[in-house]
Each structure stands twice: as C-alpha cells, then as structure tokens.
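User: Could you check the structure of this?
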Amino acid sequence: ARSGDALPIARGLLAQAILADDSVLEGRALTACGLLAADTADIVGAIEYQTRALTLAVTYRNRVDQSGAWNNIGLAFGVAGNYELAVRCYHRALADTWDEPDLRSVRYTVCSNLANSLYQLGEIAEGLRFGQLSLQEADPTFVAKDPQGAILLRRNLVRLLIAAGRVAEAKGLVTEVAAL
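Assistant: Sure, the predicted structure tokens are below.
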C-alpha cells in the first residue's frame, strides 16, 4: 500500500522535472514511477515509465541509466511472472557493462536479479553462475548502502545451492545473512 501512496508524489516530481526541463531529474522520476508502478502490480505502467527512462538514457548516452532501465524492465516482467522476458532484459542490462570497471555496482545488482529469474526457470547451474558473479562484483560499500540487496542475493544463492544439492555451502550463506 505504501507504493500506491508514493506513486502520485513521484508523478508530481516527474511533472515538475518536465516543466523544469531537467533531464537528470526526469530520468530519476521516471525510474521511481516505474519501480512504484511495478510494486503496485501495474506492470504496463511500470514498463512504460522504464521505457521512457531508457529512451532518455540512450539520448544522453548514459550507460549506467541504460543498464538500470533494462534491469528495472526485467524487474517488472519478474513481478508479472514472465521470467523468460526478465532474463532477456537482464542480459540486455549487462551487455555493455563488462568492460567498464565503473559499472561494478550495476553488474552486482543485475547479476543478482538474473540469478533469481534463472532459479525461477529451473536453470540452476546458470543461476549459480550469475549469483557467484554478483558476489564477485560485490564491494563492502554495496552492503552498507543496500543491506536488503545483499540479503536478497544470498537468499537467491541459498535457494540455488539447495536446488543443486549443495546444502553445506548454503548453510554458510545463511550464517552470513544472520550477520547482516
């Protein structure tokens, strides 16, 4: 219910950003509107906002925001239960990030989300690969900034490891989560 309450505020911010001709604020507001729309199960609205954010990011050649928009479109498809399309979006989000050290946080987030969608599709080995890649991209500052993201990554890995029959390894991650 909180996302539904916040969405009109984000839409107001978006309207003000457009009036002010502030493309940075507009991109952030579009992203916020898209995430909030997805959280209220308005998948079509979420994809519309994120597509507008993607278009803006492409216009300004902002690779971080492009990856973020593709990641968020993937999240919307995941909320809708369409993990095949979510996986395709996550791959698009990762496509141009591997050669950029500055995009480490993007890879961390996208690989975690990709691992979850691959788990949902029963693609355990591939899910583990991306979950491990996410851990490799992790930086202690990421955990401090987003402890929930760190917990979700470990949750994803625990589920994947258990599905792969590697319960002992999963136990270690459960201990890590308890420490967070």
